Amino acid sequence: MTGAKKTSSYGAESIIVLEGLEPVRKRPAMYIGTTSQSGINHCLNEIIDNSIDEALAGFCRNVEVHIEESGYLTVFDDGRGIPIEKLPKYKVSALEIVMTKLHAGGKFNVGAYKISGGLHGVGASVVNALSSHMIVEVRRERKLYRQEYKKGVPVHPVKEVKQSIINFKYKQGTGVSFLPDSEIFKETVEINYNIFKKQVKERAYLINSVFFKIYNRKNNDRFAYFFDGGIISLIRDLNRGKKILHDPIYIKKQLDDKEVEVAIQYNDSINENIYSFVNVINTYEGGTHLTGFKTAITRAINNYAKKEFGNGKNGEETFTGDDVKEGLSAIVYVKMPSTNLQFEGQTKSKLGNSEIQTFVQQTVFDYLTTHFEENPKVGKEILGKIYLAQKARLAAKAAKEAVLRKGALEGASLPGKLADCQEKDPALSELFMVEGNSAGGTAKQGRDRKYQAILPLRGKVLNTERAYLDKVLAFKELKDLVIALGMGIGENIDYAKLRYHKIVIMTDADVDGEHIRTLLLTFFYRHLPDIINKGHLYVAQSPLFKIQSGKHIQYAYSEEEKDKLVNSLTPELKNSPTIQRYKGLGEMNPEQLWETTMNPEKRVLKQITVGDSQNADYVFSMLMGDEVPPRKKFIVTHAKMAKLDF
Q1: Full residue range of the structural domain in which residue 178 is found
Q2: 189-205 residues labelled b (16+ CB within 10 A) or e (exposed)
Q3: Distance between CA 207 and CA 211 in Å, rounded?
Q4: Where are the alpha helices (H) located in 74-188, listed in sequence order?
C-alpha cells in the first residue's frame, strides 16, 4: 500500500551471540589491524612474540622461523612448551584453551610471565581463527604432543604422538605452523619479507643472547641474528655511515617492577632517528615513555647550557625540542609487567601508562645531568651541535615567515608553469612532476586535463639531505612544488590542504633522470614524509623501447621484456622490426606519452613506500650526505650492477 510504513521484527531471536573465535573471523581487523599484507606479518609476529616471552622469562635461547613453499608459516622455540594438562574447570587441555579461547593465557598471571609482549591474551587464538589450518606441537618431559585446527576449530583433542609432522627438533619447547586463510586475507597470504626481517632484527637487538634463525624455502634465503650488545649495538647500527660526535651514552635503571634502558648518540646530520620499545614491541607511534625522554633530554641540555653560558649561548633563547633532536639517534626501551601495560589499540603502537612518563623523565634527566658534569667534552660537543641547529632554525623560521607574509605558500598564487587540473577533489587529482620543459610541454598536451596536473622541473633540484628550510624555500623549483602541493612545509604543515593524492615523479630513463628522481625522493623523505607514509608518492615507468613492424607497435619497459616481445612476433613481423631505444620523455609525442605512461588503464606506476625506516635513513645519509668513504665503498661494491648508456 502506498505510503505504508515499513515494519521489521526485533525480538530475542534477532540477537546473535558469536561463540568462541567467531568474532575474530567476523571482524578480523579489530584484532590484527588490517587484513592486508601487514595483517599477515602481524599474525606471524604474534606467534613469534609467544616464543620471545619465553626468552624474556629466561627459558628460551633459540627462536626459529620457517617460511614454507606451501605457504605455511612455522615458528619453533626451545622454551618450556605450552602446558598440555587438562584444566579441571574446562575439562580440556590448557593447550586447547590457549589456542581457541580469547583472553586466555599465562600473561594475565604475573607469576607466569613478568614481562611480556602480549597484553590482550588473544595472539595465538586470533592467529588460529584466521588460519585455514594450524598445527601445534609441544615437547615436554621428553614427550611430544599435537593438536590440529581448521579455522580455529580443533580437529582432534591434544594427543601424544611419536613423530613430528612439522620437523620440530628441539628437546623441549613449542612449534606452531599455520596457513593464513585466503577467505580472510583476500589480497595476499604472503608476508612482507623485508619488513619481517627488520622486525626480527629489532627483537634480536632487544633480547641479549637469543639466537634467531630464519629459513625462507621460497627463495632459499637463510639468515640469523644474534647480538649481545643490546641497544648499544642498535644505536651503532642506526648511526652507520654517519659522522658521530661521541660514544653512545647508555642509561639503565630499575624501579620496583619497571625497567628503562636508553641509548643516546649524536651525529652531524640534521635528522632525528628515535625508536621506542615496550617489552620488545616497537611503539612506532610513541607514547608516554617517549614523551618523558624528550622532555628530559631537552631540559637536561638547557640546564647544562645555562651553566656553561648563562641564559642561553650568546644571549639566544633556550633550546627547543626541535633544536635538541637534530642529529639525535636514540633508543628508549621500557620493560614492565604485562598485566600493567596500557596500549592504545590491539596493535600496540602507542604506550599509555602515565606513570612511565615520570619514571623515564626523571631517570634520563638525572643521568644526563651527572654525565655532562663528568664528561664536559661530550657535553660541549653536543651543545655546539645544538647551537648550530638553533641558528639554522631561527634563520629558516625568518625565511619561511618572509615567504608566508607574501602569501606564497598559502596557495594565493600557483606557479605559472603549473598546468593544473579541473578536478577539485584531491582524492581524484594527480600531479606529474616532469623532468624538463620539453617533456613537460609534451605531458601537458598528452594528459587528461580533467584530473591530471603537470609541473615541469628545470634541471636538477637541490640536494636537501642536509638543507634547512630556508635553503629549501630559496630554491625556486622546490618552492614551486611546495606551493603546488598546497599543504605547506615545516612545523606548519596542514596535511588536509594537500591538493593531489597521487603525486608522480616522471623522469627520463637515463642516469640524469635517475639522479633527479633520487633528489626528489630525498626531498620528500626528509621534508614531506607524510606524502610517502600515506601512500601518495609514485614513480612513473616510461617505456625503454618501441618495437614497430609495419603498423604493429609494442612497448617494452626492460631489456628482458623487449627480447620476449621480439621473440613472440609472428614470422612475417619478426623479419622487419624497428627497435627504438628511448632515452628521454621528449622523444615521445603526446599520444605516445599518454598511451604508455599516463593512461591509468595501461600505465605502470611504482608506489614509494618505506618498508625499513632504519635502512632507508642509512641509504639516504650514505648516498646524499657529506661522508665520502661510505658512499665510495657503496659505488665500488655495486659498480658492476650499473647499466649506463653511452
Answers
A1: 22-225
A2: bebbbebbbbbbbbbbb
A3: 9
A4: 94-100, 123-129
Q: Is 512 within a domain?
A: yes
Catalytic residue from among 49, 181, 508, 617: 508
Residue 573 domain-assigned (yes or no): no
Q: What pLDDT does residue 508 have?
A: 87
185 and 217 share one domain: yes
Q: Are residues 354 and 487 in the same domain?
A: no
181 is catalytic: no
Query: Is 508 among the residues known to form the active site?
Result: yes
Q: What are phi and psi of 199, to 5 degrees?
A: -65, -40
pLDDT by residue (tens digit) across 540-577?
998 888 888 878 888 888 888 888 888 887 777 767 88
Assess whether 435 carries a catalytic annotation: yes
Catalytic residue among 148, 268, 272, 510: 510
Asked if residue 7 belongs to a domain, the reply is no
Whole-number Cα distances in Å, 566 to 246, 544, 554, 593, 604:
59, 14, 9, 22, 20
d(CA 99, CA 125): 4
Is residue 216 located within the same domain as residue 235?
A: no
Which residue, 338, 365, 400, sits at the end of a domain? 400
Mean per-residue pLDDT pooled into runs of 10, the chain (646 residues): 44 44 86 87 91 89 96 96 87 89 60 52 83 96 96 94 95 96 92 89 88 94 91 92 93 93 93 90 90 96 88 63 93 87 72 92 97 95 91 75 56 80 95 90 94 92 85 88 89 88 91 89 92 93 86 84 84 79 84 92 90 74 77 76 59
- 429 closest CA partner among 405, 446, 447: 447
CATH number, position 440: 3.40.50.670
- Domain stops at, among 225, 255, 274: 225
Q: Which of 512, 587, 612, 627 is catalytic?
A: 512
Q: Are 420 and 340 part of one and the same domain?
A: no
The pLDDT value given to residue 113: 57
**273-278, strands of its sheet edge to edge:** 249-255, 258-266, 328-335, 273-278, 281-282
